Amino acid sequence: MLSTLIDMRRTSSVYRDWCYYPPA
């Protein structure tokens, strides 16, 4: 479920996804 939400958000705005899951 989370994977699907993240995938959809990534397509919408990648920079936003980074805020939630930074490449740290």
Fold and architecture overview:
With 24 residues, this protein is mostly helical. Helices cover 75% and strands 0% of the residues. The chain has two helices and no strands. The protein has helices at residues 2-12, 14-20. Helix 1 crosses helix 2. 0% of the residues are buried. The model has no long low-confidence stretch (mean pLDDT 65).
Reconstruct the topology from this structure.
Elements: H1 2-12, H2 14-20
Rounded average pLDDT: 65
Radius of gyration, in Å, reads 8 Å
- In one word, what is the shape? flat
Number of strands: 0
> Total helix count?
2
Q: Low-confidence stretches at least 5 residues in length (pLDDT < 50)?
A: none
Approximately how much beta-strand content do the residues carry?
under 5%
State the separation between the terminal residues, measured CA to CA: 23 Å
Largest sheet: none
Q: Structural class from helices and strands?
A: mainly alpha
Element-by-element helix/strand order: HH
Fraction of helical residues: over 70%
